[in-house]
Amino acid sequence: MSSTVATEQGLRIDGKAAAAELLEQVKEDVQAVVKHGVLPTLAVILVGDDPASDVYVRNKVRAAENVGIRSLEYRLPASTSEAELLQRVKDLNADASVHGILVQMPVPKHISEAAVIQAIDPRKDVDGFHKENVGALSQGQDTLVPCTPAGCMLLLRKVLGQDGLRGLHAVVVGRSNIVGKPMAALLLQADCSVTVLHSRSKDASALCRQADIVIAAVGRPAIIGADWIKPGAVVIDVGINRISTLEGKTRLVGDVDYDAVAPIARAITPVPGGVGPMTIAGLMANTVKAARMQAGM
Ligand SMILES: Nc1nc(=O)c2c([nH]1)NC[C@@H]1CN(c3ccc(C(=O)N[C@@H](CCC(=O)O)C(=O)O)cc3)C=[N+]21
């Protein structure tokens, strides 16, 4: 299956196909681990009843089923206290049959996101958000890496080749802990020159226009227009923004103005069907990796 489609413009990078490919690999890895008597298991905790989170959690559980990963779903009421949630995490840390723990973000305001992340055993931190994993990534060690940036790297290597990133100028727009910062670390590890832009950056579009690789992770619908992009650049759109249409429906758009940018880019990811599916596939890959590490394989 090819995960890039040649169009009249550049390449449309098919994240769905790339994710399906990765999931096939994960499925084989799961079978190998199972042969060693270990059933990879992912625990997903959702606090409250945000409808978007509900959909994501269901997608994660379905993806796990499809590759043979056992999943445990914990749906806790929005009134759950921080102490109760931390206790649940501790119980899962202590349960040797559980290899991965994911607490769906955002959590209700009365709960500290940081406290929850730090409570997870770093070896079970399949989001790669724990300080120990963040530190390991920043030092270039093999560790559990955040799923979205890891997925972006796989897509970039598909377009540019395994070593094709070396020496290129990558611009990351956005500096979040879950995407921007780990993305910059991975690009640096791939020998890119890396610039990170953010809301306070001066002349952001001019700086971005120097990039061979653009990673858009701002969370604002279509703010990256054609004037931000050098012709021939590879554009990865991490944004997932739900906007209302004139017909009163909702629609998903990225941070990049796709129609304006596609004609000048060498390759570009669509939204939906780009980075999103890779995030879920990456989570499955991390779960097997965690299971393998915990089994000493
Ligand atoms: N602890 C934690 N880990 C996460 O990884 C995490 C989280 N919390 N909270 C929310 C965000 C968001 N996220 C997405 C995953 C897949 C798609 C995805 O598959 N999107 C599809 C479209 C899905 C749709 O139609 O809504 C696509 O882009 O094609 C999107 C978003 C993971 N997150």
Features:
single chain, about 300 residues, alpha/beta, Rossmann fold, 2 domains, seven-stranded mixed sheet, three-stranded parallel sheet, 12 strands, globular, binds 5,10-Methenyltetrahydrofolate, methenyltetrahydrofolate cyclohydrolase activity, THF_DH/CycHdrlase_NAD-bd_dom, oxidoreductase, purine biosynthesis
Topology readout:
Elements: E1 4-6, E2 11-13, H1 15-35, E3 41-47, H2 51-67, E4 70-76, H3 82-94, E5 100-103, H4 113-119, H5 131-138, H6 147-160, E6 169-173, H7 180-189, E7 193-197, H8 204-208, E8 213-216, E9 234-237, E10 241-244, E11 250-253, H9 258-261, E12 267-268, H10 275-294
Parallel strand pairs: 2-12, 3-4, 3-5, 6-7, 6-8, 8-9, 9-12
Antiparallel strand pairs: 1-2, 10-11
Helix pairs in contact: 1-10, 2-10, 6-7, 6-10
Bound molecules: 5,10-Methenyltetrahydrofolate (GUE).
Short description:
By secondary structure, the protein is an alpha/beta fold. The protein is 40% helix and 18% strand.
Descriptive account of the structure:
The chain has 297 residues and is α/β, with parallel strands linked by helices. The chain folds into two domains: 37-121, Leucine Dehydrogenase, chain A, domain 1 (Rossmann fold, 3-Layer(aba) Sandwich), CATH 3.40.50; 146-277, Rossmann fold, CATH 3.40.50. 40% of the residues lie in helices and 18% in strands. The chain is built from ten helices and twelve strands. The strands form three sheets. The chain has a seven-stranded mixed β-sheet. Strands 4-3-5 form a three-stranded parallel β-sheet, with helices on both faces. Helix 2 links the parallel strand 3 (41-47) and strand 4 (70-76). Helix 2 packs across helix 10 (275-294) and helix 6 (147-160) crosses helix 10 (275-294). The longest helix is centred in the first third of the chain and has 21 residues, at 15-35. It is globular, with a radius of gyration of 19 Å. The structure holds 5,10-Methenyltetrahydrofolate. 5,10-Methenyltetrahydrofolate is lined by residues 55-56, 102-105, 127, 147, 240, 252, 271-273, 276-277, 279-280. Residues 13-127 form the Tetrahydrofolate dehydrogenase/cyclohydrolase catalytic domain. Its EC number is 1.5.1.5, 3.5.4.9. Pathway: One-carbon metabolism; tetrahydrofolate interconversion. Keywords: Amino-acid biosynthesis, Histidine biosynthesis, Hydrolase, Methionine biosynthesis, Multifunctional enzyme, NADP, One-carbon metabolism, Oxidoreductase, Purine biosynthesis. Homodimer.
